[in-house]
Amino acid sequence: MKQYLLAVYSAEAAMKGEGEAGGAPPAEEMQRAFEAVDAFNKEVQTAGAWVFAGGLHPSATATVVRAQGGQVVTTDGPYAETKEQIGGFWVIKAADLDAALDWAAKGSAACGEAGGGWGCPRARVPGELWARRRDLDPRVR
Q1: What global pTM score does this model have?
Q2: Could you tell me the pLDDT band of residue 13, with boundaries at 50, 70 and 90?
Q3: Model confidence pLDDT, tens digit, residues 68-82
Q4: Structural domains of the chain, ranges and CATH numbers in brackets
Q5: What is the DSSP string of 11-79?
Q6: Max CA distance (Å), the chain
């Protein structure tokens, strides 16, 4: 079976109440989302599709490490200004792209809808499968 990365994106500025969006969901809503994600994790594990998963700290705590001119340069904080940041991820095993997308849909329902839209898994797939999917489904670009 191939492995797929399901990345959970969140808009940190919206969670802080910056910009047009309006702050983090209420604590009760977040708790429901945590419970839904926990149930999803158990389902993935029970199905034998679990490889690894993890949540990440806010991007402001990041350190960028890069090689430059034969030296290693480190910079505190996020490197790129983006509207969305990766907040967590799952690595799963799936027979094919369609099965991985089914898991991504379940993960999205667990952390996205229950959490008021604060995160949404997206499947990252090998190029050969992405090309196949694009040929089969004109909505995929």
Answers
A1: 0.71
A2: low
A3: 899 999 988 766 667
A4: 2-136 (3.30.70.1060)
A5: -HHHHTT-SSS--PPPHHHHHHHHHHHHHHHHHHHHTT-EEEEEE---GGG-EEEEEETTEEEEEES-S
A6: 50
